[in-house]
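Annotated sample (chain length 286).
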Amino acid sequence: MKIEISHVTRYSYLEPVMDSVNELRLTPRTNYRQSCYHHEVTTEPVASLFTYEDYFGNRVHSFSVNKPHKEMVVKTKAIVVTQDQSSIAKFGLPFKGQLELLKGEHLQNRYIEFLLPTVYTEINDDLYAYSVKYPLGEEGFYVWAKNLMSGINSDFIYDPTATHVNTQVGDTLRLRRGVCQDYTHLMIAVCRSIGMPARYVSGYHFVGDLHGGSTDFEQASHAWVEAHVPGTGWLGFDPTNNAEVDWRYVKLGHGRDYKDIVPVKGVYRGTAKQKLDVTVDVRLLD
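Output written by the structure step:
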């Protein structure tokens, strides 16, 4: 499917600020499941963009605005062609073979960043107590990940007012509610607790046709999990919507947790009083 994304980030400051240095991670990936055919970035005030790939292979645009300004706007547009992820996991290795691969030195060394806990995905006694509800069985890691995804979706309440950008897994387990970032961090932590590599994915989720064709509903960027199924590879799971990743999902990038893949981040000199507005429009072109 061909999907068009428009993303506008607007910072408004109470007083003029200056020496603003920023990084953007808003370029859709091109991989086995999607191809980015067009992408553009504009800024107000106008600034020169420097682009590079970070450690995880995410496309980064950086820029600076040195002169005083009371507003900064970042606009991105992209056209991406997507497809469903492979169903090969349903016919993967037997459980014994999966375990052997998972415990092997090659996989451990290659994906060590996605096996170790982080501040957002701390593995503690509360997490172990929660994870025992989802024991790993002979069905293998793919079925286990699907069950975990569905379990998190039913165990927690989606509540945009309950958490914030710095919420950690321990807070989510205590509150029993949160948003896509919290659901994703929790599933990652449980995966890592059993030795399964898992990473945080930032992107977009097309749901326009689920709203009767209306484009007036509020949209936002989204987050989900990619877990490494031994013998199969990386597969996407969305615990927020209890869905495996399909053509509706447009991936921007991945990292160990949210901190690695913040869409827009930066520093500046001036007042701390600011207002942030983000507008996202995800449309199906054909």
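Annotation: The chain has a mean pLDDT of 93.
Annotation: The helical segments are 95-103, 105-110, 125-131, 141-155, 169-175, 180-193.
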